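Annotators were shown the component list below and the corresponding predicted structure, then asked to write short factual statements about the assembly.
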Amino acid sequence: MAVAGAKRRRVRGLGSERTREGVVGYGFVALPMAFFLLFFIVPIGYAFYISRYDWQIFKGPFVGWGNYRTLYHDSVFWRHAVRNTLVYTAFVVPLQMALGLTLAVVVNQSIRFRTFFRAAFYFPSLAASAAIASIATYILASDGLFNTILHHLGYHHSNAWFAQQSTALPSIIGLNAWTTSGTMMLFYLAALQAIPVDVYEAAAIDGAGAWRTFRKITFPLLKPGHFFVAVVSVIGALQMFDQSFLIGGASGGPNYSTLTTVLYLYNQAIGNIKFGYAAAVGVVLFAFIFTVTLIQRLLFGKAEVA
Amino acid sequence: MASVTYDHVTKTFGDTSAVKDFLLEITDGEFMVLVGPSGCGKSTALRMLAGLEKVSDGRILIGDRVVNNIAPQHRDIAMVFQSYALYPHMTVYDNLAFGLRNQKVAKSDIDTRVRRAADILDLGQLIKRKPKQLSGGQRQRVALGRAIVREPEAFLMDEPLSNLDAKLRVQTRAEILKLQQALGTTTIYVTHDQVEAMTMGDRIAVMKLGVLQQVGPPEELYREPRNLFVAGFIGSPAMNLVPVEVLDGAGGQGRVAGFRPEHVELASGGGNGIGFDARVEVVEYLGDEQLVHLTRKDTAIQAKLPVEEQIGSGQELKLAVPRDKLLLFDADTEERVTV
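Structure shown to annotators:
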């Protein structure tokens, strides 16, 4: 009996310790969760709520799905904002990934001044996008550095790259691929360093040269890294705003060629004071990003683990 | 197949010498074990041969070809790593075939050789699995398969059994030996486990702090250790190494007497042995014999005695060591001296 009693006390003691641990655990996550709820979940819900009203500065009449119906027939939204955003994403994501991976592979080698190169490659990601956009406007001006270099190479291009409808968006793609490549490099560097050294040693002894090792060992083993970088970069690309705004102005010029979904949302909210309609744009964009990320997870999410 | 020669090889990392003036000749088809405690330079010596570490000084030869500046992939060697280092994203088949594909071997030949290796190592059923779906022992066999499928000049094995449990280790030890004998490929095997070294090596090279202590067949190292380190390292339980003063009549001053626990006998009076008394501290029953821990003049001594003898803690025993089994070492130089 005494033994049984002692056992029971011990079990009860363990239980209360578990409860205490649980309380402490929940205590630790409570604050971040409160922030998450307050600044992410509530605004998403509230945006959806606003999108059902003809909301200007203040709450207007309830319109149900009215804003969504208008958006469905909005040709500027679909033919320019959405189209540009998709084109931008389709080009900038692979470019960012390729650049980031190349830089990561370079600075992962034991080369001289490695730390300097890592910092140098990462630097554009730290610089303010306004500053970079301003400098890029000079470089890509009609008499800018870029055209001068092209001129010396025997190619004559006299127009400003951001001012031409055909070259404005590709120029922003190039610019943003460069500015974000440092961040992508950092992600890829972390993924590269997670590959065990002895796998490379085994490949070297197995007779694989540098290119074959990269193709057959490094690239496939970076799968979790590819997934992470792809998700981050697609989400970032679908939310592109600042460069378009700084370079093409609020209208996304010239002639809507740099108008993106988020810039369109901004124009509706701040320019036209149509918060209800802008919220509907936001909700559609959120649903799209959510779906794309889910698809990405299904396609690449199953990472190889050694 | 080829011989391997370390010709006065040195490896330094900054100010630290990992391997010092290493001189070793491994004959064609030989199974050479490099053994020593961790940090003795055995793995560094092996990695230099593989081309994974640069040689700081001296030459390494495979056959009569100096390989110091030859990349690992051109040395025609295969290596089995302690961690197995399998390619996690490839199937067993692709793991085995990778080296052959790199050599641009014809597809049909690759298939034949991979299937033959898989047969030898009993991997046939696992050929389509990935490493994460295999047990430790199966991964180990894939690592071995990856080495044999290449038919290289030499196998290099870096503690290949240390991640296996005791039973599997003994079993795999025998499999590796059988495989090496069947293929006749020169093998350099690194381990910190002297039992592994004794049971597997044609010859054993014992290393300590980057310096080669002694090379020879297992029996020679066991019977004729050149110095105190080899004497204490080879053999389990370890050789008794006691100041000569502990054994009356062992001879000399400034000497250390060495004798193996299995050579200690219960004194029956007379004989040519060196007799001594000792007190029993603990008795370990081993089944076929008993390991008796004793003290004499505050010095610990171990003896392996027949189980038939009734021995208990606190008992005073009269023991003897045959003169011809007694080794003497210089206490200062630690080298063996003749009795």
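Statements collected:
1. The longest helix of chain A spans residues 2-51.
2. Residues 73-300 of chain A form a domain with the MetI-like fold fold (CATH 1.10.3720.10).
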